[in-house]
């Protein structure tokens, strides 16, 4: 039996009764890994490929460059004929023509002759080396060469960059700018990439006001939808829409259940309060796979699925929302999009400046600031204190089997990045 199934609350109406058991983070992650898989491939035009994930290996059907070409501005000749050339022994050659990029010299270069050539121009037949302009002096239709050149010198060989048939980039590769350039260099105008997960953000809460609008005295501004937008973008999702709905069962059900979506992120109302409708809706309309996780913050997180859509219930407290996204929803997005499942945060090994206290049986997500003394846990760090995540440089994870970390311990700090 999995840890997730041992969580006996799953699927029952637990409103105002509290969680009687919580899934371990491990079991919660295992549920995601069992229910998330890369989406089907789609063909995407070259100019939209940056950042996308290749669905299949790419092989080249051409050589790059497709012909031998000059790597310098200078004079193409037979390298062997420059033997012995030097400042005190200039050798003289007849200039018989010119080769420019895209405009080759058609005749064969014979002994004692050179062709004036520019970088990128095809090497004329007969020539096998290029004298750079700085080792040559042109006068009256002839050129004096003052350096010896081995055959092949300053010549870019056909296929030296890419050979026909070569495997250029592998399936799963997240395309960097230069990768897209390479695909263009073999003439491709599109590639097969993993479809990006379509994501809907549903923000619940009667108390929420929209930034930029006037708000009532007891209202607060919605911080989570803007934060989730950025996280979805970071993890390669395609935002379908952001819906703000009141704490009513029907409105939340309609927002969660509407079709055509891969992932639904629900902010707020994920717990066991009287206005927390989302868990019950999910259990009724589909499957509530996990509800309640042994971690802090984010313990009221839950998730499941309705049809093919994965639905994540993220607690409304903004730090919990961020943390539950990073532990669970972000992982699902990355898996669906064909990316590495692991955290995208860079990791730095740092000494702890002060101890972190935790409890055996729960995972802690502890914000830290990096200073001269090492990683400093933030004092004011409740789940509702979003500024703790902006003052912090990153976070430390205290595993479930640990009572915390003493000052001086070396820990992995996951760095917040754009
Ligand atoms: P909930 O998870 O709905 O019980 O909300 C927990 C706490 O988070 C409450 O104090 C809410 O007012 C607050 N909260 C809920 N949603 C948001 C949001 N979108 N932005 C900022 N705070 C929120
Ligand atoms: Mg709420």
State Rg.
32 Å
Return the CATH class of the largest domain. Alpha Beta
Distance between the termini: 39 Å
Largest sheet: 6 strands, mixed
What structural category arises from helix and sheet content? alpha+beta
Strand element count: 28
- Strands side by side in the biggest sheet: 7-4-6-5-9-8
Low-confidence stretches: 1-6
CATH topology description of the largest domain = Molybdenum Cofactor Biosythetic Enzyme, Chain A
State the share of residues found in helices, binned by percent: 10-25%
Bound molecules: adenosine monophosphate, magnesium ion
At the fourth CATH level, what is the homologous superfamily of the largest domain? MoaB/Mog-like domain
DSSP strand (E) fraction? 25-35%
Describe this structure in words.
The protein has four domains: 3-40 and 195-336, Molybdenum Cofactor Biosythetic Enzyme, Chain A (3-Layer(aba) Sandwich); 42-64 and 160-194, Molybdopterin biosynthesis moea protein, domain 2 (Alpha-Beta Complex), CATH 3.90.105; 69-156, Molybdopterin biosynthesis moeA protein, domain 3; 347-415, MoeA, C-terminal, domain IV (Beta-clip, Beta Barrel), CATH 2.40.340.10. Helices cover 18% and strands 30% of the residues. It is built from eight helices and 28 strands. The strands form eight sheets. It has a six-stranded mixed beta sheet with strand order 7-4-6-5-9-8, with no helix packed on it. The protein has a six-stranded mixed beta sheet with strand order 16-13-17-21-20-18, with helices on both faces. Strands 19, 22, 24, 25, 26 and 28 form a six-stranded mixed beta sheet that branches.
